[in-house]
TrEMBL record:
Zn(2+) binds at residues 255, 258, 357, 416. NAD(+) binds at residues 125, 187, 210. Binds 1 zinc ion per subunit. The lineage of its organism: Bacteria, Bacillati, Bacillota, Clostridia, Eubacteriales. The gene is hisD. One of its GO terms (cellular component) is cytosol. One of its GO terms (biological process) is L-histidine biosynthetic process. NCBIfam families: hisD (TIGR00069). This is Histidinol dehydrogenase. Substrate binds at residues 233, 255, 258, 324, 357, 411, 416. One of its GO terms (molecular function) is zinc ion binding.
Amino acid sequence: MKVEKLKELDLKRLTRKSYGDDQILEQRVTEILKRVQEDGEEAIYQLTEEFDHVNLRQSGLRVTDEEIQEAYQEVSEDFLQALRTAKANILRYHEKQKRTSWLEPDADGSLLGQLLLPLKRVGIYVPGGTASYPSSVLMNALPAVVAGVKEIVMVSPPGMDGTLLPEVLVAAAEAGVSEVYKVGGAQGIAALAYGTETIVQVDKITGPGNIYVTLAKKQVFGTVDIDMLAGPSEILILVDESGDPEELAADLLSQAEHDRLASAILVSPSQELLEQTMVAVERQLADLPRAEIARASWETYGAAILVSDLQEGMDLANQIAPEHFELVVQDPYSWLGQVRNVGAVFLGRYSPEPVGDYFAGPNHVLPTGGSARFYSPLNVDMFMKKVSVIGYSEAALKRDARQIALLARSEGLEAHARAVEVRFRGREEAKKI
């Protein structure tokens, strides 16, 4: 890889993000969803054996209380303490997001307002198999807990032995998950969206997964709500000459190791720093356990971009709209007001992206693929619905009836107008409407 100048840059390569428009995979997912809709758990058993090579008839579909208790025996006290501290941080942050219902009475006796109500039942998807993502459990479940959701259902693909990893089960118990099922992929999304003999349909599905999961969420939207269509992870780092190449390389690789399609971009007005960081990336790749994945990501979707100054770099960041944006400059707070299109911003060298992934408190389920231009991180509002409240008094309707009827008739909707006027039939007021 070489340093690229902004004016010579192929932005299409960095803003590709076609993670959910594969027509062949779309059709496969459609078939999976249809099988679960029609055959319920029998389809889930068959699909899990086909894709995950696990016999759920033997291992069981639902995780039992005994399995969760056993999981507690298998994790260390240090892990449990770290998990509980992260949980406290996440709860504290999300509590500040919660809003309340409001009602506003008027002097004429009418009342307007808005009810904020939690969803009754939500499903969270947690990637699994050989990988362990307890942080994803916390980030998806805890905002729902803060919102007041009573039933939180988790699905996750089982390992070859038909179990879920103990760290994930402990995280589910600590986060207040009501039910846990050993099913993943598109069939797991289908089970949540349509319901089965055992799994009751949910109102909303959240959580990231592979492309099958993403396409399944895309297709069930409308039957249930979803959080977002999550694509490969992204990081963009804007750095001045004060940056440390070893730290920057580590931050870039922290995202590149996620997925071959992940994007890691370094932007700076210092060519020397860009070149030193690329050397550091190669050095760190040598002993990285997930080096093969990270290298594929770095070589295909990575970039070291030379800009004329930090302002040009900030403009580029807002154009790309990355999931994670590290602002590693001498006075990052002075630039915060210019941040527009990013999922999460990390200020200064002591705020590396993993702080947000695991511990600080803000949610790590973030918009990807440029959707940070218009979308937000997973938050408490996403687990609530708003109900409008209208309580007109007789005096208020009398005051507004003529204008309401006029607007209704302007749209050719006579019955709408009459529904207002009929309340004053035979009365003197009717002549004024």
